[in-house]
Design goal:
CATH architecture of the largest domain in chain A: 3-Layer(aba) Sandwich
Structural class of chain A: alpha/beta
Distance between the termini of chain A: 45 Å
Shape of chain A: globular
Order of helices and strands of chain B: EHEHEEEHEEEEEHEEEHEEEHEHHE
Distance between the termini of chain B: 19 Å
CATH superfamily of the largest domain in chain A: Glutaconate Coenzyme A-transferase
Mean pLDDT of chain A: 97
CATH class of the largest domain in chain B: Alpha Beta
Low-confidence stretches of chain A: none
Strand content of chain B: 15-25%
Strand order of the largest sheet of chain B: 3-2-6-11-14-15-16-17
CATH superfamily of the largest domain in chain B: Glutaconate Coenzyme A-transferase
Radius of gyration of chain B: 18 Å
Strand content of chain A: 15-25%
Oligomer: heterodimer
Mean pLDDT of chain B: 95
Largest sheet of chain A: 8 strands, mixed
Order of helices and strands of chain A: HEHEEHEEHEHEHEEEEEHEHEHHHH
Number of domains of chain B: 2
Radius of gyration of chain A: 19 Å
Number of helices of chain A: 12
Largest sheet of chain B: 8 strands, mixed
Number of domains of chain A: 2
Helix content of chain A: 25-40%
Structural class of chain B: alpha/beta
Largest interface: A-B, 62 and 67 residues
Number of strands of chain A: 14
CATH class of the largest domain in chain A: Alpha Beta
Helix content of chain B: 10-25%
CATH topology of the largest domain in chain A: Glutaconate Coenzyme A-transferase
Chain lengths: 302, 279
């Protein structure tokens, strides 16, 4: 960690924001499953042509899969990548793992949490429950065991993990980078404090007073850059703004499963365009209808 | 109360009965949790709270909402719909800390492969680092399957013959005994698998930690189960039929899950299985 970030105005563009991510960097992606993934930043990363990333985190979906499909990722250290029972296995992630082009060092939620906590605390490792007897340690020569000096218990031990860059998305934030998130925060706070650089996109840039009134989840002093990106989590949800876009996710999964030209066509249509074009193409605005009634909310999931 | 289902037919379907069988593994007063990608378990926990286990504490997986009353269960586990009327949402850290220190009584776990001791593989068919099929991954299971009080393991793919196996290709979540030793030998504090519910029947675990068939669904024979099981199956002396769902339980399933996300876990043949008066 290189200390706090004290500038009052950290506004930037998506392109400049993702320039913080160098080839080969260790990158933490905020959000979880199909909620609050930093998709505008992910699309910008793909446009930047980044390669060799090591992505770390808990349970993720289209963010990791899209980066893998675009050839940006060398090593995946997430606890899960997929589209749950609804849309199934993650196609590009699967293809990469099965062909050997992607190294999967699968982790687990508590293990990742513990490694981030160690980095936050400035200690080289921490013990963690479980893992012993599972096959996950075979994927992690850097993990070990430790004997408790007080009780003699033997526990798994995992090293501190400080990501080079965390990419987070929030519904609102101010120009200094104070962010408000709705729960669940998943690992976003831990990423924010453990990472060397934190790049945030927000659906809306607002006055500090509005963020304070909503509650500051991630404070400005750990944030390096902030960029306004309306519907920046689309096609994943970012409440209270919008629900996830099930039909777009299905379209993505279909293109990723087909691979080749179909995947390239997806990238051309939705990724190698500016965000305004993307929002218009996807009709993201309709996903704000969730709040009208339970019936309309349910309709978005049919 | 009517047992009429949404499609107007009398009786009930296998997916409804399966969820009820899962729900019955929750004891009243327990703190229970499900992971993501677990629609049947997700619905079952709400059914348990609305029927025989009103005093249980439900922690919704991936949102960590405590005792929410969702109007419907969406097809993704991290959605605001699952927070409805929850007085409190745990933080990610708060839930996993509680699970690690032993404050959570039961978790639901599934797997692409499950062995006789209840070890599960949700990482890769064919193992790592050269998977034949890369599955999604285990979330937090490799940690908290070691520490949670009891596990309800389930699968809706027992009949495939490829799910209940002699040895898992990759051991993601802990059963009663691994090649490296028993839970006690490994220093793990949780109780391990207590129930295994499949679309063929219900199994518990013997004192030596192996799955034992205690009941089958009425359209399934013990021989069917043995044929579909890849390890030597222990069968209880008094093996019976899975107890029928009550009208209240069926009503709860239908009320909790109007979108039918539970059905996402079943193949077409199992979705066609019907029971009761008109079956």
């Amino acid at each position: 960690m290189t200390g706090f970030h004290l500038a009052a105005d950290k506004r930037t563009t998506l392109e400049e924001a993702v320039a913080h991510v160098r080839d080969g960097a260790t990158v933490a992606l905020g959000g979880g499953l199909a909620a609050r993934l930093p998709m505008a930043l992910v699309r910008a990363l793909v446009r930047q042509g980044t390669t060799g990333l090591r992505v770390v985190g808990s349970a993720h979906s289209i963010d990791v899969d899209l980066l893998v499909g675009a050839g940006a990722v060398a090593v995946c250290e997430e606890s899960y990548v997929g589209f749950e029972q609804d849309l199934g296995l993650a196609p590009a992630f699967r293809r990469g793992a099965e062909s050997g082009s992607l190294v999967v060092r699968e982790s687990s939620c508590v293990t990742m949490l513990t490694q981030l906590r160690a980095a936050e605390m400035g200690v080289p490792f921490l013990p963690v429950r479980g893992l012993l007897g599972t096959d996950l340690p075979t994927l992690h020569p850097e993990w070990g065991t430790v004997t408790c000096p007080f009780t003699g218990q033997v526990l798994a031990a995992v090293p501190a993990l400080a990501p080079d860059v965390a990419l987070l998305h929030a519904p609102i934030g101010d120009t200094a980078g104070n962010l408000h998130l709705d729960q669940p925060y998943v690992l976003d706070e831990r990423f924010a404090h453990a990472s060397r650089v934190v790049v945030a996109s927000v659906d809306r840039l607002v006055d500090t007073a509005e963020v304070v009134a909503a509650g500051v989840t991630v404070p400005a002093h750990v944030v390096t850059a902030v960029v306004e990106a309306p519907f920046g989590a689309h096609p994943t949800s970012c409440y209270p703004g919008y629900a996830y876009d099930r039909s777009h996710l299905a379209e993505y999964v279909k293109a990723a499963a087909a691979g080749g030209e179909a995947f390239e066509a997806y990238l051309d249509r939705y990724v190698r365009v500016d965000e305004q074009t993307y929002r218009d193409l996807t009709g993201a605005e309709r996903l704000t209808a969730w709040s009208a009634s339970d019936e309309q909310w349910q309709e978005l999931f049919r | 109360m009517s047992t009429q289902s949404a499609d107007g037919a009398q009786g009930w379907s296998l997916d409804e009965w399966f969820v009820v069988a899962l729900a019955r593994t929750v004891a009243d007063g327990e703190v229970v949790f499900h992971g993501f990608a677990s629609p049947c378990a997700q619905v079952a926990m709400h059914v348990a709270r609305r029927t025989h286990a009103p005093g249980s504490m439900l922690v919704e997986g991936a949102t960590y909402a405590v005792n929410p009353e969702p109007a419907f269960v969406p097809p993704t586990s991290n959605d605001l719909a699952l927070h409805r009327d929850a007085v409190y949402r745990m933080r990610f850290e708060e839930f996993f800390d509680a699970a690690c220190r032993g404050a959570v009584d039961r978790m639901f776990l599934s797997g692409g492969q499950i062995d006789a001791y209840g070890n599960t593989n949700v990482t890769a068919i064919g193992g790592m680092p050269h998977p034949k099929i890369k599955l999604g991954g285990g979330g937090g299971g490799a940690n908290i399957s070691a520490t949670i009080g009891a596990l309800t393991v389930w699968t809706t793919r027992h009949g495939s013959g490829r799910t209940l196996v002699e040895a898992v290709d990759f051991l993601t979540d802990l059963g009663h005994r691994t090649p490296a030793g028993t839970r006690a030998e490994l220093g793990h504090t949780g109780g391990g698998p207590q129930w295994l519910v499949t679309e063929l029947g219900v199994l518990d675990y013997t004192d030596d930690g192996r799955a034992r068939l205690v009941a089958t669904f009425p359209d399934v024979t013990v021989a069917d189960v043995e044929k579909a099981t890849g390890f030597a199956l222990t069968v209880a002396d008094d093996v019976g039929t899975v107890p029928e769902p009550t009208p209240a339980e069926l009503a709860a399933v239908r009320a909790v899950d109007p979108l039918g996300v539970r059905r996402l876990e079943f193949g077409p043949a199992d979705l066609a299985r019907r029971f009761g008066p008109a079956a």
